[in-house]
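Annotators were shown the component list below and the corresponding predicted structure, then asked to write short factual statements about the assembly.
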Amino acid sequence: MDLSYTPAELVFREEVRAFIRDNLPESIRAKAGLSAYYDGSDVRTWHKLLDAKGWAASHWPMEYGGPGWSAVQRYIFMEEILQAPAPEPLSFNINMVGPVVYTFGSPEQKERFLPKIRSLDYWFCQGFSEPGAGSDLAALRTSAVREGDDYVINGQKIWTSTAHDADWMFCLVRTDPSAKKQEGISFVLIDMKTPGVTVRPIITIDGEHHTNEVFLDNVRVPVVNRVGEENKGWDYAKFLLGNERTGIARVGLSKGRLQRARRLAELSEVLDGKLSEDPFFRRRCIELEIELKALEVTALRIIDRQRKRNDGKPDPASSILKLRGAETQQFSAELVAEVAGPLGLAFTHGSKAPWQDLAEDDLTAVLGAVPNYFLSRAATIYGGASEVQKNIISKAILGF
Amino acid sequence: MDFELSSEQSMLKDSVDRLIAQRYTQEARERFKAEAPGWSRDNWQQFADLGLLGLGFDEALGGFGGSMTDTMIVAEAFGGGMVVEPWLGSVVLAGGILRHADFGGREEAVAALAEGSRILALAHEEEGARYLLSRVSAKADKAGSGYVVNGRKINVIAGDSADTLFVTARTGGGVQDEDGISIFAVPKGHPGVTVEPYRSIDGARYAAVTLKGVELPAAALVGAAGEGFPILEKAVGDAIVALCGEAVGLMEAMLKTVVEYLKTRNQFGGPLGRFQALQHRSAEMYVMTEQARSMAIYAAAMASEPDDRERRRAMSFAKVQIGKSLHFVGQYAVQMSGGIGVTEEYIIGQHFKRSTAMERQFGDTDHHLSLIDLLDRRG
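Structure shown to annotators:
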């Protein structure tokens, strides 16, 4: 048992840190994650810089353009990205659809799609949830009926984040309505420019446009765009959702917020001095720091176990990471919002605030803090709600 | 980075797990508690034979070697069985004084401890000190070439069976100063020393030790005069690592007991375990146990960290997580066991007593949060 990073891993961390420092464009850096949101062009610009360096697809096999990193290196990379903070390589492409295509796709699909998935020339969004299929995803009803060499697809998807930036959508559709609910589903790739695809924004509680409804009205998709076998889509979806979960705790993101909270607290006066000296505030920061340390070690333990088992199957213990990771993201967002205090009540929505006392970086953090807190409430809902994670632990680990 | 046990560590774990499974049924534990010292000398000899009493001591000192990770492995098994023998108090805590102090006769003391012929105890806590480690009001006054010690110590683990007591007393400094604390080795039955045993809430044997005009030669001093605090603090750090290990073992045992109960207890026409509310609570207990395990591993790794502040901070980090996890898992283990959870007879009640004691031993959650803050303020 040895918890320390090797010298080579420490050198690697420095290399990642230096690359981000030297290459992240100033305009993106200024948005600083906490407050302003990255727009689609920010994500694309940074993703392409990472891809040019060979770092966009950190866990892909080298034959498809992965960098050949160890699990610990991948963890370090993600931590540095989140803590910088810089935009993450687009998860839909890198963690989700890419691995499905290289694991289950045809040789033609791999050749056609993988380089563009990796480089973000094809930005993918995820067409899974439907109005009647949230946590119970297998209840989905969007239908795909075969006509010659095409499927004709009709239905509606919801919570389709970044659909307004996306070029493609990977989508679960029902190809056999008579089969049991998990057994009649197929996994297809849909070009967002296809006639009959309509994207309608959903404005989230922070006042921003992150997510959408997508309506599919007689959309014709070539059968060659189905990945894997017909009616086996549920297996691919499970594979996708279980793949590369170790970064899901997003410890680096919460660490960055904790640093920001402590810094802002130094600028904030309370009754008898600075907020940063207040014992209750300090205690909450320390409790968050301890929680993050425990999460970090748990994540590294799960990485280590997966590496040794090496069967590519998801570890149900990674539900701990989603569950507690989402909670700490919420706690850290709330902490920053509380530090912002009354200044955080102004909703400027990207425009200038009428006060000038804070430096620009601190001002953006203050103004973004409460909207960010609002959005953080989604963390325990998306990607398998906390209740679903507890179901997984109950069944797969405790045997209920 | 590697979280896997080495082959030697796996063998150690297997042998200790087997020992506990064979010897430590609930009935046997009650029998051990009823023996004269409050624990079983026979078990102690078994521990000696397995090398557990010399674990964590350099081979050069006559010990069996092994890291704090090995100590944690043994502790986890002991925690699951709620071992009443004073292994943590005698080998890890009082033994920690031997590990971290340099003084004449150390090799002989380690050898005697390792073979099971000598029981050690640390007499440090005092009534007014709460969890503050540097608070020592017992005094050691210089008298000729030696010292005269006066004071009263409480919660001395295995104080009545100890062959040697390590007693902390002040040779200088104010009552809360880290400077000025000295450690003395006091043999069993020494004139002026009164030992009053009592039982702790979790079934262990403690003692109060009163020292009245106790005359000690200069050779009784362990380490340099007035410089005992760093030794004491490191020994308590080691004990925190072991306690973290025991806590993980205990929480595993509680979770296993509760999950089995929920699967077999029938109510409303079927097993209770089919209710999602109870499944989710069990899942939360699992998460708290695993987070505690991570911090136990972290504490064991950090025990040898050369930067003192980082090491102390890490021990407190671990104790906070362990405390919170024990609180959550202990209380819900009782709740989900229903009425039998609050009986003296059922194992969960015994688990809960032990978890409650562990939350407090070597400082509770509030204490360690304050301590981290203090270390941060000192910078």
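Statements collected:
1. The two ends of chain B are 28 Å apart (CA to CA).
2. The CA atoms of residues 291 and 321 of chain B lie 7 Å apart.
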